[in-house]
Specification:
The protein is mainly beta. It has five helices and 38 strands.
Length: about 550
């Protein structure tokens, strides 16, 4: 949408400033005018309107008559060129004054083959501009009570046009108009301040360069001008209160509209990559529901500067947003809808138009609950556990300190006689009671539990040494929480009794295996039970607290 929202159904699109174009004629068939059609020099055109034509007979090599089709390229004095059929004619010396009506490709050519592909320089990496700013100005007002910030980008990558009319066929057998585009880099924030309901409006209209398409007749190119413009529509919106969302309406597409086997068809393909950021609770006032169209850019192109011959493509970026107390607390749904159409008089000679309304894409961009997620910074630390039985605003969980309290310390200092204790809690939620037992046993001595109790990160004083279950949970989320992934950390889970070793459970963060290492104290001398005479091991410490 690759990585919106300005799409172009381009008919014969060869803009001023084209970087590259390629005209093909694989069948090697020349373009043949109808017997009553004439291509004339621009010097022969003295005056031209949609209903009249004045010719200098000295500049043409035939005598014009009623029913003749007159074709001429644009000039400095006649920017539309001539594509007219004579209805009446009068002569004054060498000057012919004619009343005319518009003609069309099908009527003007007995045989016509165009296979035209190009890449345009003009819109490559272009950005939607408001005034002279490539971004929406800060808090740009779409309408009273509705503001938008950010940028909407679009790129036209290439355009391919095919027109095939075999000799003497009543209609072309193929018309194909294809444009490849993307809206990568689009980033918009919409915000409302209160309840409101507003209709659709055109925010801005800007014109792209006039393009000229060559049709080679007898070795001479006849140029047909096409006017192209973009209308940037926004809204409608219906919202029940204050809201703010940030969205990225990115996509890439190959847009196709064509005349195949006697029918106009739309066969565009898309790769939509739209996304949104998680909303912030403070940007809303309780329950809120909204339906809004953020931007609906419409590309229009018409041959010969005639608005009634428009072809167009409109992509509406539609959103449905809901904020509520029940779960999920927030939901943002995205719908991309295509409206395309063509007035086909110019292409087939048949008066009429064809339009399409196609749902392109629908998805929930964001849905969830307000509150805290793994990795969030909150309550003086980093969230690594959220109690799944709780929800915002009564959410419960655990945070760890922002960094280690020690890179290596013994679990407790040696005492003689050795105090016996049993801090045996292993599950989530038992680390606090384990730590209390250790602190009451060893007082203010330098223990792993004391380091945690003395920590005051975020202004909180209830930090403690985690149980093995809490430490294991922290290890499972080490990708979201900065921690020594190869380190070994003390837990507060320690068990023992008189004349037996004390087992202190630790966590190896290289593999997150619970009970991956056991340290045993000899209560007689404080050394490792399995290695008499060795000083007890020193491991890392990371404090945690409940919220």
């Amino acid at each position: 949408m690759r990585n919106s929202l300005l799409l172009c159904v381009v008919l014969f699109l060869v803009a001023t400033g084209c970087k590259k174009h390629d005209v093909k004629n694989e069948k090697n068939l020349s373009n043949i005018l109808s017997s009553n059609a004439h291509v004339i020099d621009t010097l022969a055109v003295l005056n031209c309107t949609t209903t009249s034509l004045t010719l200098d007979g000295n500049e043409i090599n035939f005598i014009p008559s009623v029913g003749d089709i007159i074709l001429a390229s644009p000039s400095a004095d006649n920017h539309t060129g001539v594509f007219s059929k004579i209805q009446t004619i009068s002569r004054n010396g060498s000057v012919y004054t004619c009343s005319t009506e518009p003609t069309n490709l099908n009527e003007a050519f007995r045989q016509l083959y165009i296979d035209y592909r190009y890449v345009t320089d003009y819109s490559q990496n272009a950005q939607l501009r408001l005034s002279n700013d490539i971004h929406f100005p800060q808090d740009f007002q779409l309408a009273p009570g509705v503001t938008v910030n950010g940028v909407f980008r679009y790129n036209i990558e290439d355009v391919h046009i095919i027109y095939h009319k075999p000799e003497n066929a009543l209609l072309p057998d193929t018309v194909l108009i294809q444009a490849s585009i993307n809206t990568d880099g689009s980033d918009l924030v919409i915000q409302t301040s209160s309840l409101l309901s507003l209709p659709e409006k055109t925010l801005y209209t800007f014109y792209l360069p006039v393009i000229s398409v060559p049709i080679v007749v007898g070795g001479i190119p006849l140029f047909i001008p096409f006017q192209q413009r973009v209308e940037v529509n926004t809204l409608p919106i219906s919202v029940s209160g204050k809201m703010k969302f940030r969205v990225h309406p990115e996509l890439s597409a190959a847009l196709k509209i064509g005349f195949i086997d006697g029918n106009w068809v739309e066969s565009s393909t898309y790769n939509v990559r739209a996304s949104a950021q998680k909303p912030v609770k403070s940007d809303f006032d309780g329950y809120m529901e909204a339906n809004f169209t953020l931007l609906a850019p419409t590309y229009k192109i018409n041959p010969l500067f005639v608005p009634t011959l428009d072809a167009y493509l409109k992509l509406s970026n539609q959103f449905n947003a809901k904020i509520q107390t029940q779960r999920p607390n927030y939901s943002l749904k995205y719908n991309l809808e295509l409206e395309a159409g063509i007035h086909y008089d110019f292409w087939t000679g048949v008066h009429g138009q064809k339009s399409f309304s196609v749902p392109v894409y629908s998805a929930i961009l964001k849905e969830g609950n307000f509150g805290y997620n793994i990795g969030d910074t909150a309550f003086g630390g980093l969230v690594f556990y959220v109690d799944p039985t709780t929800s915002y605003p009564d959410q419960k969980g655990l945070v760890c300190a922002m960094s280690d309290q020690s890179n290596g310390i013994a679990f407790v200092p040696f005492r003689n006689p050795w105090p016996y204790f049993n801090a045996s809690g292993t599950s989530i939620g038992t680390g606090s009671s384990n730590s209390s037992i250790i602190l009451s046993t060893f007082g203010n001595s330098e223990t792993a539990a004391t380091l945690c109790a003395n920590y005051s990160g975020g202004g909180f004083s209830d930090w403690y040494l985690p149980s093995i279950g809490e430490l294991n949970e922290l290890c499972l989320h080490k990708d979201s929480v900065p921690i020594s992934t190869g380190g070994i950390y003390w837990s507060s889970t320690a068990m023992g009794s008189s004349n037996t070793p004390y087992s202190v459970l630790v966590q190896n963060f290289s593999n997150c295996q619970e009970f991956s290492s056991i340290y045993q104290f000899n209560p007689e001398n404080g050394t490792d039970w399995n290695n008499p005479g060795f000083t007890p091991s020193k491991y890392r410490v990371r404090a945690v607290r409940k919220f």
